Every structure is written in C-alpha cells, then in structure tokens.
Amino acid sequence: MERRTLFAGWMLPAVLVAPQLAITVLFFLLPAWRAFGESVRATDAFGLNSSFVGLANFAELFQSSTYQAALVRTFVFCIAVTCLAMGFGLLLASFANRAIRGARVYRILLIWPYAIAPAIASVIFVFLLQPQIGLLTNLFGRLGLDFNYATHADQAFLLVIVIAAWKQVSYNFIFYLAGLQSVPRSVIEAATLDGARGFYRFRTMIFPLLAPTTFFLIIVNIVYAAFDTFALIFALTAGGPGTATETLVVKVYRDGILNLDIGGSAAQSIILMVIIIGLTTIQFRYTGKRAG
C-alpha cells in the first residue's frame, strides 16, 4: 500500500522545500539564465561593451574545427572512461561478493578511492608520472621507455582516461556489489544445478539481472566523464599538450576565462546543459518504465 504524509496546512511543506528551491534558483536557474543571455551577445574582452548577435555564437561554434575536434575528443573520452570504470567495477564487485575471509575489509579498501578529490588524485599521479620527478617515470626511463605526458599528446590523453576511470571504479563497485547481493540465491543455485557455472552462468543468469543497474551507471559515468573531470584534467595537463586533453568542459574554461571569449564560452555552456538534461531525461524515463 502507498503511504502518504498529510500536512494540516501549506506553511510547513513550504518551509521544508524552501532551502532546496533557494539553492536551485541561486546556483542553477540564475547562472543558466545569465549564460543564456551571454550566449546570444558578443562581449569585448573587458566586458565593457556588448551587442546582440542572436545565434551567431552557436553557428560559429559548429563551424569551428577546434570545437568539432573537442566534441569528438569528449565522445571518445566518455566512452573509454565509462567502459574501463564499469568493467573494473563489475570485476571487483564480482570478486568482493564471494564468501571469503576479510571480505568487509576488502570492500572498504575498494571504496576509499572515491573519497579522494579529483585534484588530489591528479597530484598523486603527478608525483608518480611527472616527467622529471615521477617515481614511475624514472623506472620507465631505466627500462628504456620514453614516457612524457607533457610533450606526447597520445600519452597525455591515455593518462587522463586511466586516472578518470580509476577515480570512478569505486562508485561503480558500490552499485554493482549492491546489485549482486540482491540477486536471489535460489536463482544461482538453480543455475548451478542445471550445469551453468563460471562465466557462462554470470553471462546468462546474473548479468541480465543487473541490466537496470548497468543502464543507470552508463548514464552516470557518461555525465561524470563529460562534466565532472574538469579538476582532474586541468590539474594534471590543463588541457594540453596543445589541445590533446581539451574536453568540452575544459574548453569552456579555456575560452571563457583564459581567452576571454565570453559569448562563445556561454554558448558552449548552454550546449553542455542541453546534453546533460537530455541524458538525465533518458535515465529517468528508462528507470521509470523499469519501476513500473
């Protein structure tokens, strides 16, 4: 039976909702409205003069080869991070779900990396892989391997993918572990009695039951890779060398703050907002159908 809370008047519900509404208005709606206003105007570098240009900023973006390259780069980055983070998260969750001694300790240790701030994660890898002082870089040099993400574009792009995926593995691990623990033991036992074992049992019986969790994590990981990796990338490479690691969210900062292209940067922000709203809508519609 569905249970509902009834209030005697409207005052208490309004008071309870007011803080969240205030946060939404102050930190989302007003900045979004300001970004939309700037996206249809051309403003000089000092912010003193501006003129209405309509959709010219958007048209200029989609005609720009650098923006098109950033779109492709972000797409590849999101797919790579999502696949790596979800794959290793599912693998670790499968091992942690087994009845082994010290399983609780292993689970806690696997969750810890998610608590590390993105900028701190970048600093850790700087100490490991910085071209001059990195611990692993010195080891690579002794082995005759040339690793320098500050000058090699492919190495820098691969490095930010690995770090971003490593940072997100723990998040996926938590959800996959919860999903695996919710699989009825009777289903696994019945599959075992029918001769389904090992990877075949996982592929045909267990993984299909994790489909809602998997779809949810796909959307969350794509959003994370596209929007929440700015601090990680900027602290490590600042989008370089050149534009090798310049994803869309990094390009917004570079164009707006460093290059002082306010209108173009605002237009990019609007496009990013539309993308994330679209992804969130898909997620809610799918999960709503699954719940129904």
Give your account of this protein's structure:
Residues 71-283 form the ABC transmembrane type-1 domain. The chain crosses the membrane at residues 7-30, 70-96, 108-129, 206-227, 266-286. This is sn-glycerol-3-phosphate transport system permease protein UgpA. Belongs to the binding-protein-dependent transport system permease family. The chain has 292 residues and is mainly α. The protein has a single domain (59-291), classed as Orthogonal Bundle (MetI-like fold). The chain is 73% helix and 2% strand. The chain has 13 helices and two strands. The chain has helices at residues 11-39, 56-63, 65-96, 103-111, 118-129, 135-142, 153-181, 185-193, 198-209, 211-227, 230-236, 248-258, 262-291, and strands spanning 41-43, 50-52. The protein has a two-stranded antiparallel sheet with strand order 1-2. Helix 2 crosses helix 13 and helix 7 (153-181) runs antiparallel to helix 10. The longest helix is centred in the N-terminal third of the chain and has 32 residues, at 65-96. The model has no long low-confidence stretch (mean pLDDT 86).
Number of helices: 13
> In which order are the strands of the major sheet placed?
1-2
Largest sheet composition = 2 strands, antiparallel
Low-confidence parts lasting 5 or more residues at pLDDT below 50? none
- What's the CATH architecture name? Orthogonal Bundle
Broad CATH class:
Mainly Alpha
Shape: globular
CATH superfamily: MetI-like
The share of residues in extended strands comes to under 5%
Straight-line distance between termini: 15 Å
Give the number of DSSP strands. Answer: 2
Number of domain units: 1
User: What assembly state would you assign to the polypeptide chains in this entry?
Assistant: single chain
Q: Tell me the CATH topology.
A: MetI-like fold
Membrane topology: Multi-pass membrane protein
Keywords: Cell inner membrane, Cell membrane, Membrane, Transmembrane, Transmembrane helix, Transport
Transmembrane segments: 7-30, 70-96, 108-129, 206-227, 266-286
Pfam families: BPD_transp_1
